[in-house]
Write a structure and sequence with these properties.
Layout: H1 12-32, H2 58-69, E1 72-77, E2 80-85, H3 88-95, H4 124-140, H5 145-166, E3 175-176, H6 178-194, H7 198-201, H8 203-213, H9 217-227, H10 235-265, H11 274-291, H12 318-349, H13 351-365, H14 380-392, E4 402-403, E5 408-410, E6 413-415, E7 420-423, H15 425-429, H16 472-489, E8 490-493, E9 505-506, E10 510-511, E11 516-521
Helix pairs in contact: 5-6, 5-16, 6-12, 8-10, 9-10, 10-12, 12-14, 12-16
The structure holds protoporphyrin IX containing FE (HEM).
Residues 95, 117-118, 130, 189, 327-328, 331-332, 335-336, 339, 395-396, 399-400, 402, 461-463, 467-471, 474-475 line the site of protoporphyrin IX containing FE (HEM).
Length: 522
């Protein structure tokens, strides 16, 4: 048989279709190859991996994958390996018992400048800075009467604003509370760092911070970049990345101004805030270089001194001061304020729980008693409410990303160097084997048979290990004192006929959408 031209076995369409098939087959085989003994999971769609699961609630998508693959699994976002931890035990093994899973991927442009506290890799530099800031937060914040006083003042101011809205009738019209809470919480951290409220005294500062945390499209994109950094090379995301860097630079310029004015009025024997304390360390370094002496003036009378053992070194520089202040401010506002908003929303929706909590507050403090951390034992129901709301709506549902600094074994699996490691805090706190009926709001699950408050290692909103939340003591104090102050003075309700949105929105944190409230003076 003679083949005419059209029937040739070298038909170009046939050849290119076959070649495409071969290329696709190779891509598929190559894409689906997994490193030997890596955690279970799927490689997902070639080139994209599981990236499409990063919907508006990535924590929920990842929890579903956890049910399929088990307590530790590995997926790909683009070509980046992402290991997800679904139990506190594995998180503990990774972050407390190991030193190779505590680096950070460079995925949050507003916090990644090679310096600071949050996104720097684990190193002597990082440990020294973490230790210094833990100590400085204690000195100017945690455990100090001074901070309790500040918190009480801030809460009083907040109550005064709400009281004005209640007017003569004693009941307000519906009003949004979110911005008031954000303002109060940023004021607390602002005093600890700058010894004044920068968001009130400097409007530009305030606008910048709001721009960076508002739930607008750009910030949602930043949330996605946090888990899939390689997307920053795509046109849509690259603009977003650049804009975030510009914001960071502007914010750092503002902080620099504050640092300069601190330098001018600095008295080493009378540190006013974290900036002064840091400046003392810088001076210590230069004087210890010349004299060999270490003078810890901000450390006088400090009962925590025993755990305070860093040596002044070159990690104390102006650049590092500016970046660490930026990180404390960013980390210390959004998370705590969102949690307080969730608490108010849940209690407004569940009126019976609110009444029970108020009864307890009334018995311990009455209408005029001043809240303080010394009465936590007497308020188990309040603590149970705080615990349950933050279990249901953790403000950092996937924690912050960690990164493997080398190939290493975790729970019997090989984790490749450079893999991003996420702790699925949401999944752990919604795991029905640990929390029966996990979706239900049941504060009493945190009380024992005698009505005493019960802690559980399955509650882990601050994550665990060597990079866990540096501000957790401060955060607990803020949640406790602000909540008590508000519910001691007011009852809150949602406007009749409205259906609350209890899901919220994920920006980088999980926060409630704006909601209106009615306050009634008690
Ligand atoms: C309810 C409030 C808060 C929650 C839920 C929260 C949660 C977290 C989480 C999950 C992490 C990541 C831990 C990890 O990667 O292992 C973290 C880190 C951090 N948090 Fe918080 N946080 C809160 C409040 C605060 C406050 C008030 C401050 C500071 C004043 C703060 C400062 C930091 C810093 C500096 C880090 C980075 C620590 C490091 O990398 O070594 N946080 N936080």
């Amino acid at each position: 048989m003679i083949l005419n031209e059209d029937q040739s076995i070298f038909n170009p369409y046939l050849v290119s279709a076959s070649l495409t098939l071969v290329v696709l087959l190779f891509t598929w085989v190559y894409w689906n190859k997994r490193p030997p003994n890596s955690p279970p999971g799927s490689n997902g769609i070639p080139l994209l991996g599981a990236i499409l699961s990063l919907t508006s609630f990535p924590q929920i998508a990842l929890t579903k994958l956890g049910k399929k693959y088990g307590p530790i699994y590995m997926v790909y976002f683009g070509n980046t390996a992402v290991v997800v931890l679904e139990t506190p035990e594995i998180a503990h093994e990774a972050f407390a018992k190991n030193d190779c899973f505590n680096d950070r991927p460079q995925t949050i442009p507003t916090l990644c400048s090679g310096k600071g506290l949050i996104m720097i890799n684990a190193s002597d530099f990082q440990r020294e800075q973490r230790q210094f800031n833990l100590h400085a937060l204690r000195e100017f914040g945690m455990g100090r009467k001074k901070l309790e006083g500040r918190l009480v003042d801030v809460s009083r101011q907040l109550c005064k604003t709400i009281d004005d809205l209640c007017g003569n009738s004693g009941t307000s019209k519906p009003f949004p509370i979110n911005d008031m809470i954000y303002q109060s919480i940023s004021s607390v951290i602002s005093y600890i760092i700058f010894n004044h409220d920068v968001t009130v005294d400097d409007k530009e500062f305030d606008v910048l911070l709001k721009e960076m945390t508002e739930p607008k499209k750009e910030n949602v994109l930043s949330g996605i970049l946090m888990f899939a950094p390689k997307l920053k090379y795509l046109p849509f995301f690259s603009t977003n990345w650049r804009k975030s860097e510009e914001f960071r630079d502007k914010l750092e310029e503002k902080i620099k101004g504050e640092v300069l004015s601190h330098q001018k009025s600095h008295d080493r024997n009378n540190p006013r805030d974290i900036i002064d304390c840091f400046l003392n360390e810088m001076n210590n370094f230069s004087s210890s270089k010349s004299s060999g002496q270490i003078d810890k003036s901000c450390d006088q009378n400090d009962e925590m001194n025993r755990s305070y053992s860093w040596q002044p070194s070159s990690s104390f520089t102006i650049g590092q001061l500016i970046s660490s202040v930026r990180d404390l401010f960013m980390a210390g506002t959004e998370t705590t304020a969102s949690t307080i908003c969730w608490i108010i929303l849940f209690l407004s929706h569940y009126q019976d729980v609110q009444e029970k909590m108020q009864k307890e507050i009334d018995e311990v403090l009455g209408q005029s008693g001043v809240p303080s951390m010394s009465i936590t034992e007497k308020l188990p129901h309040v603590r149970a409410v705080l615990q349950e709301v933050s279990r249901l709506r953790p403000s950092a549902p996937l924690s912050l990303p960690h990164m493997a600094s080398r190939d290493a074994i975790l729970n019997g699996y090989v984790i490749p160097k450079g893999a991003i490691i996420l702790t699925n805090i949401w999944g752990i706190q919604h795991d029905e084997s640990r929390w029966p009926e996990p979706e239900k709001f049941l504060p009493e699950r945190h009380l024992d048979n005698d009505g005493k408050f019960n802690t559980s290692s399955n509650w882990m909103i601050f994550n665990v290990g060597l990079r866990n939340c540096l501000g957790q003591k401060l955060a607990k104090m803020e949640l406790f004192i602000v909540t008590i102050s508000l519910f001691q003075k007011f009852s809150f309700a949602l406007p009749p006929g409205t259906t609350p949105d209890m899901e919220g929105e994920s920006v980088v944190t999980l926060r409630p959408r704006h909601f209106d409230l009615i306050a009634t003076r008690r």
